[in-house]
Specification:
GO molecular function: phosphorelay sensor kinase activity; protein dimerization activity
Domain Histidine kinase: 60-263
Protein name: Histidine kinase
Strand order of the largest sheet: 1-2-3-5-4
Keywords: Kinase, Transferase, Two-component regulatory system
CATH architecture of the largest domain: 2-Layer Sandwich
Organism: Thauera phenylacetica B4P
Length: 266
């Protein structure tokens, strides 16, 4: 009789086990898809920035080097016309004209390569982070997401270093993935901005990422390396940043990452 009851209990528990596995697999697939889309967005941001640099280099080549070569050719041409009876000077002028002609051809070829068609739009890191929050919310409709992201450059619109942008995105991704997988939360708040109080003696502000949920928290003694914490700490440490895990009085978990604000790329 006991064996029969045990068999019934085991059979009854199997659907729950299968359901839980399917749910975990679905959450993992959603998180992977969200990461891929965010990575593509960041890649587009980096590519746009590279293209912006290419266009700036092309302008410098055309306006500075190109015009200087043209000026040298004009001077050499004038010398050539007036040195017919001076073979030495005449030959040097011809050599200068030939050499600057090759230089012009080289500059023209470089400009052609630099000025290939490129996307004109430039997406800021802040926009990429905002887009990831929207993407995550669309995959986890059962969790209310409140997202507030402030401009992170010295002035609004100033782009950040790509390494910093990638670190911010990774911290946001890992924190929200943990909320979906482990927190059992109903609400999560994301705040990203500049923190100026307590800045260092050089007056450098910090970029702060804070992800706070109302779930079950991390536990009394979290396992080292659990939930991607070690990876987040290592990535932040490379940029002289730090990671904090806080337990708010009203429950849940607050993940807070801070790193020095770099000099904006101009």
């Amino acid at each position: 009789m006991w064996h029969r009851d045990c068999s019934r209990t085991c059979i009854r528990g199997e659907p729950d086990l299968i359901y839980n596995r399917l749910a975990d697999s679905l959450d993992e697939s959603r998180a992977t898809n969200a990461r891929l889309e965010a990575d593509q967005s960041l890649a587009r941001t980096i590519q746009a920035r590279l293209e912006q640099e290419r266009r700036a280099i092309a302008r410098e080549l055309h306006d500075e080097l190109g015009q200087s070569i043209t000026a040298v050719r004009s001077i050499a041409g004038a010398i050539l016309q007036r040195s017919a009876e001076q073979p030495g000077i005449h030959g040097s002028a011809q050599a200068i004209l030939a050499m600057t002609g090759h230089m012009q051809d080289g500059v023209h070829a470089i400009l052609q390569r630099l000025r290939r068609d490129a996307p004109a739009a430039h997406e800021r890191v802040e926009d990429t982070l905002q887009a990831y929050c929207a993407l995550w919310a669309s995959h986890h409709e059962g969790i209310e997401l409140r997202c507030a992201i402030e401009p992170l450059g010295e002035t609004q619109g100033a782009p950040l270093d790509d390494g910093v942008g990638l670190a911010l995105l990774r911290v946001l991704q890992e924190s929200l993935t943990n909320v979906a997988r482990h927190a059992r939360a109903r609400t999560v708040e994301v705040r990203i901005g500049l923190r100026r109080e307590g800045v260092d003696r050089d007056g450098q502000a910090e970029i702060e990422v804070e992800v706070r949920d109302d779930g079950r928290g991390l536990g009394a003694q979290p396992t080292p390396g659990r939930h991607g914490l070690a990876g987040m700490r290592e990535r932040l440490a490379e940029l002289h940043g730090r990671l904090e895990l806080l337990s708010p009085p009203d429950g849940g978990l607050c993940v807070r990452a801070r790193l020095p604000q770099p000099v904006p790329v101009t």
